[in-house]
Amino acid sequence: MARVLAMAKMAKFALVMALGAVALGQAAAPGQDTSSPDTPSQGNGLLIEPEKLPDTYPQEAYAVELYGNGNYVPVLQWRVESGALPPGIKLEENGELRGAAERAGEFEFVVGVRDSGKPQQAVQKVFVIKVVEAIKVDWKVPAHVTANRIDGSVAVSNTTRDDMDLTFDVKAVAENGRATEIGYQHFPLKRGTVGMTLPFGETLPHGAYVIYVNVVGEVAKRNAIYRQRMQTPGPLQVVVGP
To answer: Which CATH architecture best describes the domain 135-238?
Structure first.
């Protein structure tokens, strides 16, 4: 009798285990996606390329295509999830970044993309676009007083891919507002020029002067004009008369 009871218990246990296995199989078969058809998945089948974006400069035409890589279902849907693109550049529906940046700066943003699968795959990626100044101007020899003169020089660079028509103008402005030209050049500045030295200097009457450096570059074929301006932190005192 005890043996019969033991066999009955074993049969009952086996039946419970079998029913549990069937229930588990119905809940989720191995490899089966249990998400809703309308819920995007974060699978690794879809990747956003390229790895990073090229730099640009203000008013330069910018056209870079973002594209999907890996296992996904066309057609892709693109959008900016957060952050900000450079003003003047936008993300088109086909994944192309297009436009011309309006100002220099470093702009970080997150791009998201979804495919057309059921369920959809959705991934995001952080990008940075650096918009560099088209003209870079630095003090080479800061403006300074020597006896009755103010002299100095600047270093000018053309970071664009275009030759430009450059105007270099330096004025010494006295306390009474009178401006004296102490440097002027007008010439073609070749693309890729780095650190070209432009000197300035002039003999001036007794007085205090603030020095203003103005650099203007023009690219006629693109109707683009770039400007940079510097000035001395304070007035320079000429104490010796001419």
So the answer is: Sandwich (2.60)
Residues 6+ apart with CB under 8 A from 227: 135, 214, 215, 216, 217
Burial class (CB in 10 A: 0-12, 13-18, 19+), 39: exposed
Q: How far is CA 180 from CA 79, 127, 158, 176, 204, in A?
A: 54, 47, 27, 12, 8
What does the alpha-carbon distance between residue 100 and residue 66 come to, in Å, rounded to a whole number? 17
Distance between CA atoms of 214 and 230, rounded to whole angstroms?
A: 7
Tell me if domain 46-131 and domain 135-238 are identical in fold: yes
pTM (whole model) above 0.85 = no
Classify domain 46-131 by CATH number. 2.60.40.10
pLDDT tens for the chain, 242 residues: list them. Answer: 444 344 444 444 444 344 443 333 443 333 333 334 444 555 568 999 999 999 999 999 999 999 999 999 999 999 999 999 999 999 999 999 999 999 999 999 999 999 999 999 999 999 999 999 999 999 999 999 999 999 999 999 999 989 999 999 999 999 999 999 999 999 999 999 999 999 999 999 999 999 999 999 999 998 899 999 999 999 999 998 65
Tell me the backbone φ, ψ of residue 19, rounded to 5 degrees: -65, -40
CA angle (4, 10, 13) in 5-degree steps: 145
Domain spans, the chain = 46-131, 135-238
Q: Are 164 and 215 in contact (CB under 8 A)?
A: no
Judged by DSSP in three states, 15 sits in: helix
Tokens matching residue 224: 């683009």
